[in-house]
Amino acid sequence: MADKVILLSSWVSAFGLRVQIALAEKEVDYEFREENLFDKSPLLLELNPVHKKIPVLIHNGKPVCESSVIIQYIDEVWTNGPSLLPQDPLQRANARFWADFVDKMIYQCGSRVWKNKGDAQAAAKKELIGILKQLEGELGEKPFFGGETLGYVDIVLVPFSSWFYTYETFGGFSIEKECPKLLAWVRRCNERESVSKVLPDRHKVYERTCGLKKRLGLE
Amino acid sequence: MAPEKAVVLLDERVSPFGQRVRIALAEKGVEHEYQEEDLANKSPLLLKSNPVYKKIPVLIHDGKPICESLIIVQYIDEVWVRGSPLLPSNPYERANARFWADFVDKKIYDSGARMLKYTGQAHEEAKEEFIESLKLLEGELQDETYFGGENFGLVDIAFVPFTTWFYTFEVYGNFSIEKECPKLVAWGKRCMERESVSKSLQDPHVVYELLAYLLKKKYGKV
């Protein structure tokens, strides 16, 4: 019996985009269902009653929630092709650590850059640059965080690159200037179809963020 | 047989996150050196081993550090394959275990801490969220022996240290956890029958004294 895979997500969710990249890396056929985050579908609310959030992967009718949990699930179920997580337990722990770092730091800090003004924005901007520099340090001279090939940390981080233009425009700084190696890594990731076909255009993301700011009354 | 490589745990006795790691090491019978950290005066080893967060627990295995308690527990499970596995072998059940362990951190610890710290409206909101989160977790447990079913596992390890905080939550929240979530309390007692748990956790009244002291010192909360 063929696998039936559905992904409840949104084109503008960095967490959902990660899952799309992981599915593409494993060449998994799936149906993508765009969720309106201001009017969530009954299916989403039924399958993720705890958090009521996207992404949700539905594999043969069974839901898997939380993007980092989903990616590890995809890696363990579809064992064709290279592993997304390292085989060695220490390297695997390290990959989980940095993916968790991305999760804890980037979204909330980046959001503070575009949501705030004045001192609060300046502080968020400084913090974001610090976070990106730490990641750049972890990358080092490797082509990818996963080493020679795209891995778990790359997949978890790269969707946020579509938000770089938004952070830069609101924050008034250049990420390329602060973290050139990270930008080179973004370009390398985009040489892979699994990434380039999935990531949204940065201007679309910026426009959407402007609209969201208006809607939230943050202008 | 080659000697096992050295295992060192940098920890702080009352940390629930450190307790998770101690429980996992005990479950697997891993001999290790315990190093108590003074969090007001962190050791050079801790700062070098966890430069990103500078926090405990840190497990150092053969000189290499592993940080973040749930990541450490999974590492222990993957390296010391003797005894009962801490995660299920089925990928879907494994994803479910990871989901609920993450839930303990994101929802229960977060709302519980806010309930302790704040007063007034913020306190009431945190308390409501905390009780709701406990009930969701109890819903996941249902009538199983452990969250891992018959096997004591990741979710049990993630949550059980917080059972010693129940008394504190009850005093500050003015409610009874046994009344709201009797199955969780029964599960907590079952876990305490395991030596790995009873030897790693602190007495709830000791926890209360310490938390009361910290809350007063840091937030002026009485």
Descriptive terms for the model:
heterodimer, A: 219 residues, alpha+beta, 8% strand, B: 222 residues, four-stranded mixed beta sheet, 11 helices
> Uncertain segments of chain B of ≥5 residues (pLDDT<50)?
none
Mean pLDDT of chain B: 95
Sequence of secondary-structure elements of chain A: EHEHEEHHHHHHHHH
Strand order of the largest sheet of chain B: 2-1-3-4
Helix residue percentage of chain A: 55-70%
Number of helices of chain A: 11
Total number of helices of chain B: 11
Structural class by secondary-structure content of chain B: alpha+beta
The global form of chain B is globular
Adjacency order of strands in the biggest sheet of chain A:
2-1-3-4
Radius of gyration of chain B: 18 Å
Question: Mean pLDDT of chain A, rounded to whole units?
Answer: 96
Terminal Cα span of chain B: 56 Å
Assembly type of the shown chains?
heterodimer
The greatest interface here is: A-B, 23 and 22 residues
The computed structural class of chain A is: alpha+beta
How many strands of chain A? 4
Alpha-carbon distance between the two ends of chain A? 52 Å
EC number (chain A): 2.5.1.18
Signal peptide (chain A): 1-24
Protein name (chain A): Glutathione S-transferase
Function (chain A): Is involved in the conjugation of reduced glutathione to a wide number of exogenous and endogenous hydrophobic electrophiles. Conjugation of reduced glutathione to a wide number of exogenous and endogenous hydrophobic electrophiles.
Q: Would you kindly provide a written description of the structure presented here, covering whatever features stand out?
A:
The complex is a heterodimer of chains A (219) and B (222). Chain A has helices at residues 14-25, 42-47, 67-77, 89-115, 118-139, 152-157, 164-171, 175-178, 180-189, 193-196, 202-215, and strands spanning 5-9, 31-34, 56-59, 62-65. The model of chain A has no long low-confidence stretch (mean pLDDT 96). Chain A contains eleven helices and four strands; from the N terminus they run E-H-E-H-E-E-H-H-H-H-H-H-H-H-H. In chain A, strands 2-1-3-4 form a four-stranded mixed sheet, with helices on one face. In chain A, a hairpin with a 2-residue loop joins strand 3 (56-59) and strand 4 (62-65). Helices cover 57% and strands 8% of the residues of chain A. Chain A has 219 residues and is of the alpha+beta class. Chain B has 222 residues and is α+β, with helices and mostly antiparallel strands. Chain B is 57% helix and 8% strand. Chain B is built from eleven helices and four strands, in the order E-H-E-H-E-E-H-H-H-H-H-H-H-H-H. Chain B has helices spanning 16-27, 44-49, 69-79, 91-117, 120-141, 154-159, 166-173, 177-180, 182-192, 195-198, 204-219; strands at 7-11, 33-36, 58-61, 64-67. Chain B has a four-stranded mixed sheet with strand order 2-1-3-4, covered by helices on one side. In chain B, a hairpin with a 2-residue loop joins strand 3 and strand 4. In chain B, helix 1 runs parallel beside helix 3 and helix 4 packs antiparallel against helix 5. The N and C termini of chain B lie far apart (56 Å). Classes of the chains: A alpha+beta (219), B alpha+beta (222). Chains A and B meet through strand 4, helix 3 and helix 4 of A and strand 4, helix 3 and helix 4 of B.
